[in-house]
Amino acid sequence: MTNLDEQGRPEPPLAGDELATLLGFLDFQRATLAWKCHGVDAAGLRRTVGASTMTLGGMVKHLAYTEDAWFSRWLHGNERQPPWGAVDWAADPDWDWRSAADDSPEQLLALWWAAVERSREMVAKALAVGGLDQLSARVWPDGRTPSLRWILCHMIEEYARHNGHADLLREQLDGSVGE
Predict the structure, then answer these.
(1) What gap in Å lies between CA 15 and CA 36, rounded to an integer?
(2) Cα dihedral sign for 44, 104, 66, 122?
(3) What is the pLDDT of residues 84-123, one digit of tens each?
(4) Is residue 120 a contact partner of residue 81, using CB atoms and an 8 Å limit?
(5) 99: burial class by Cβ within 10 Å (0-12, 13-18, 19+)?
(6) What is the mean pLDDT of the chain?
(7) Can you tell me the distance from the alpha carbon of 61 to that of 74, in angstroms, rounded to the nearest whole number?
(8) Is 124 helix (H, G, I), strand (E, B) or coil?
(9) Per-residue 3-state assignment (H helix, E strand, C coil) for 148-171
(10) How far is CA 118 from CA 41, 48, 73, 149, in A?
(11) Pick from 2-6, 35-39, 135-139: least confident
């Protein structure tokens, strides 16, 4: 049974093995993003702070893209799926961030949750084959290949970084604060 904190986030195990700890922290970071976006309307998801163009909606769409990019495309070598495959990333490298303004909160959160669920399936598939040492199907231009362990740590870092941004955006939006 997973313990939930006061915001309903699953707490990572205090004395779990490496896999349980990594997956626990990734799910905690995912739940933190969900908490920061809970109840925010379309205007709130488009709101910026200061000179930054970053929005909560853009962050949700970016993290949906990042989930698919690392767990499907990099780890398993799959081609980009919709909507990512139709984007000219060279012409619009910030498409995920920018295009979120055209999506409703329901569309953004559904896109993100679907990406999270696909990622969980992709992780389970990789664990069954090679565990945390499973190397990605795609190789970096310099010939190095990240492991599933590295990808999980990177995704924890990606969420933690953007959750800090989400803290600022949500506080500016309606005064909500918390870790």
Answers:
(1) 27
(2) positive
(3) 999 999 999 999 999 999 999 999 999 999 999 999 999 9
(4) no
(5) middle
(6) 95
(7) 18
(8) helix
(9) HHHHHHHHHHHHHHHHHHHHHHHH
(10) 26, 29, 11, 18
(11) 2-6
Round to whole Å and give the CA distance between 66 and 72: 10
With 90 as the cut, is the pLDDT of residue 176 above it?
no
Could you give the CA distance from residue 161 to residue 152 in angstroms, rounded to a whole number?
A: 14
Mean pLDDT of the 168-178 span: 90
Does pTM top 0.90 for this prediction?
A: yes
Structure tokens at 21: 């700890």
Report how far Cα 140 is from the mean position of its chain's Cα atoms: 21
Report how far residue 169's alpha carbon sits from residue 37's, in angstroms, rounded to the nearest whole number.
10
Predicted local confidence at residue 1, as pLDDT: 55
- Cα–Cα distance for residue pair 24/42, rounded to 1 Å: 30
User: SS3 of 16, please?
Assistant: coil
Q: Which residues, including other chains, have CB under 8 Å from residue 48's CB and lie 6 or more apart? A: 54, 55, 169
Output the CA–CA distances (angstroms, integers) from residue 46 to 50, 106, 116, in the order listed.
13, 14, 22
